[in-house]
Specification:
The chain contains twelve helices and 17 strands. It is of the alpha+beta class. The strands form four sheets. It has an eight-stranded antiparallel β-sheet with strand order 11-10-7-8-9-12-16-14, sandwiched between helices. α1 crosses α10, α2 packs across α3 and α3 runs antiparallel to α4.
Length: 407
């Protein structure tokens, strides 16, 4: 259900231009109309299993390319592409994207403005690193995604509980279980959606982000405006970060904060952004990032010509407190600018906000709106959110219940 809601547009776009054979962890359901064949691999992060599936498909078909939009599969898929003799950014480069400590080192080596950062494995190491960097600091898993396990720490007294929170998330990783202690970058957060083909990077769009109040960093809303003046401000830093990592052929989602108006890098994701950002880019500019990614995977020059100049926004829907969803309905009109409403939670579902939960356990759904400008689209999102009724029966799950995003 969540995969269809957030990535269905990607598969539909690629299938409109290519015959798709899929390697998937579950038996296909909603994907069936878009694919020609598939191999089910329970754990696609297993290189041996993924490679066997890829070879099986290569025996049946003449494969032109392979790619993924799933963070956890970036490295195994790059290795698979190399094994099959297909175009790819080098696996070791994808590994650097997945490992935030490695990325920070490469940013420093190439003079890309980033954050002071120390990789640790113990609470005592985290305490020492925080003292050296200076509070406030941010703790995060070295190799995770979607702001899971990311927390701001303002004082030494907060650090033990915060380290436990980040360390629990880091412990779920298969590529690294370390925790980063980082300088807190104080400023608005944006992402830069980029396309790199044969080593040349084009900045396609800027996404402005709204995140939850400290200490967590849950993503509440995104907006894309084809005419965003920040394009000229952040483009050079995004290209420099991609170059520092060595990305040669990929769609990239480059996250940064503007500190005193200047970009400071957070991380580079070597894939199409999540949270429907690729769809927002298409609504605002006409550029089809899933199709672009497929073209690059097949070593075809992508079409990056804008065909629209407008804006779009997504507004995430969260409960105000952890609890059980008892009512969910939309009572408003459906004007043309309300592009879609999507729910991933049903009445009776249990919702858990941080620190007990994360975006996957708390988010109810999302709204997408369009407008002439980002401000228009965001305002319409708030209007549509006001017509949404959510009832949640609170339950106590421990200290901190309810501390998290409010939709």
């Amino acid at each position: 259900m969540e995969a269809e809601a957030y990535r269905g547009y990607c598969l539909a776009s690629v299938a409109a231009a290519y015959d798709v054979v899929l390697i998937t962890s579950d038996e296909p359901s909603w994907e069936v109309p878009f694919i020609r064949d598939c191999v089910v691999v329970p754990d696609p992060t297993s290189q041996a299993a993924l490679s066997a599936a890829g070879r099986a498909l290569a025996d049946r078909y003449e494969l032109a390319g392979v790619f993924t939009w799933t963070e956890w599969y970036l490295v195994p898929v790059a290795r698979l592409a190399r094994q099959l003799g297909l175009p790819t950014t080098a696996p070791e480069v994808m590994q650097a994207c997945r490992n935030k400590a490695t990325a920070r080192s490469l940013f420093a080596r190439h003079g890309v403005p980033s954050a002071a950062s120390v990789s640790v494995r113990t609470r005592q190491g985290a305490e020492a690193a925080a003292e050296r960097i200076g509070y406030p600091v941010v703790l995060k898993p070295v190799a995770h995604a979607a702001s899971i396990g990311v927390i701001r720490v303002d004082t030494p007294e907060q650090l033990p509980a915060a380290y436990k929170f980040a360390d629990q998330a880091a412990g779920l990783g298969t590529e690294s279980t370390s925790v980063l202690v980082e300088e807190y970058l104080d400023g608005p957060e944006v992402s830069v959606e980029c396309v790199t083909y044969r080593g040349e990077t084009t900045v396609v769009a800027v996404t402005r982000k709204t995140v939850s109040a400290p200490p967590y960093f849950e993503e509440l809303a995104h907006s894309v405006d084809a005419a965003d003046p920040l394009l000229d401000v952040v483009g050079q830093a995004a290209r420099a970060a991609i170059g520092a990592l060595g990305i040669t052929d990929s769609v990239s989602h480059v996250e940064m904060r503007l500190v005193h108006g200047r970009p400071r890098l957070i991380e580079v994701n070597g894939r199409i952004a999540g949270d429907m950002i690729g769809h927002l880019v298409r609504l605002a500019t006409g550029i089809d990032l899933p199709r672009v990614a497929a073209d690059i995977a097949c070593d075809r020059a992508p079409d990056l010509t804008p065909t629209r100049s407008s804006a779009a926004a997504i507004h995430m829907v969260y409960p105000e407190t952890s609890g059980t969803l008892t009512a969910r309905r939309f009572d408003g009109p459906r004007p043309p600018w309300l592009e879609r409403i999507s729910f991933q939670r049903s009445v009776g579902d249990r919702l858990l906000l941080p620190p007990e939960g994360d975006m996957f356990s708390a988010r109810i759904g999302f709204l997408i709106t369009t407008g002439a400008t980002a401000e228009d689209a965001r305002h319409r999102g708030q209007e549509a959110r006001g017509a949404l009724t959510l009832d949640v029966a609170p339950h106590l799950v421990g200290p901190g219940t309810g501390a998290g995003p409010i939709g």
